[in-house]
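Case study 2.
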Amino acid sequence: MTSSSGQGSTFARRVTAVFSTNVVIFALALLTTVVVSRILGPQGKGAYVAVIALPGMLGAIGVFGLPGAINYFSARGASVTGLLRASIVLATVISVFTMAIVWALLPWLEQSVLRDAPDDMLRVIVFTVPANTLSTFGAAILYGRQRVRTYTSILVAQAVATTVLSIALVGPLHFGVPGAVTASLVTIWLLAIAVVIAVWRLGGSSPPGDPVSYRPLTAYGLRFIPASITGYFNYRIDTFLIQALMVGPAALGQYSIAVTMAELVFYIPDSVTIIFLPRVAGASRQGADAMLPRVSRLTSLLTVGSAIALIPVAWIGIHLVLPQYIACLPAFYVLLPAVVSLSLSKVMTSFISGRGRPGAVSVGATVTLVVNVAANVVLIPMYGIVGAALASLLSYSAMAAMMVVVACRLSHNSPLAVIVPGPAEVRLLIATARRGAVATRAIVARHGRPGAAGPPAASDAAASHERP
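Prediction:
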């Protein structure tokens, strides 16, 4: 009992650390989004979102499922130095291949799913591919070894750099969309450098670990490819289809604000699943099965509560601060239950992948993508950006239902046991909130001191801090 309680306390502390960091990052990202969106307007915002959608797409397609594999083997005790070496080699090969393919396809992309993006900016943002790939692999190593504080410190510094550079280039210097893209390019590369340094230091201070072989690494990663690709397009296919099926970037600019607000709820499940997958991978089968209901119920409670609280906040914020984006609110209201469903899926897929069954996740994600594309093609011409939101609601709900069934079969739990919160989750929520408040104050104090040491500032704007 003592061992179990101690493990649960450690898990809760790590999740709280990640969530507290995300709160700080959210505040900085919100400031950046508000200032940049006000200056650029819906047209400029739509053009910027179209540009940064490209590296996000390439990151999903071009990494071949390897981040999940690297995270899994890191959690299982593979050599950190060996994983870093493999990551650098694989990132180099993948980047050369991906950039060559994309450069050849750019003329077609510019006339179809990326037609709202300025052509010259697309050619610039392609050069973030090596940095994005390497930082993704490095983050997988750090989280696999539960080096939460190391990576969260980098993320806080990254958010600061993104805020300062984006506002400076778009605001006082009046560089507009090119300025926002330049800020993304610079901070993405700084992020990669910071992550590689952190992993290299970890390798020097860690035990040798198991040797790393490319064959099992790539073999496990190949099982993640369908889930990685379909998972990304399940999140972002609407961004591309809005460009293909609607005229002008203004609609994409409106939709991007709706998505950004709705995905604030993601900070909760993201904080949990980053820790949960390697925890499941490193636990016994019985221990992993016992964790699933507790983690899932608490995440559901937090997610639903946050979604409800977000409605009045978003309405007031849009009307007072970003009145030119009022048209995004109907889509936002539809997206909230969609994001709640997807949040449940995130917990389930982390458990399933941690149990070594990524194939089931891939099948579910593929089915969901088919539903998503079909619904978008039908609903966007009928209802515009609200149709895109409805397509997300339908597909995300289908994904959640499938993943709950698979996870329950693997863990021998009932669907109600993993979904419906009880008094125990309410008590844990109160305790976690108190820890989060303390941790957030500590993070702010640590990074706010004049001359405080910290990792290099960097940003992955194509990922989470400037979500399309």
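Confidence is low (pLDDT under 50) at residues 449-468.
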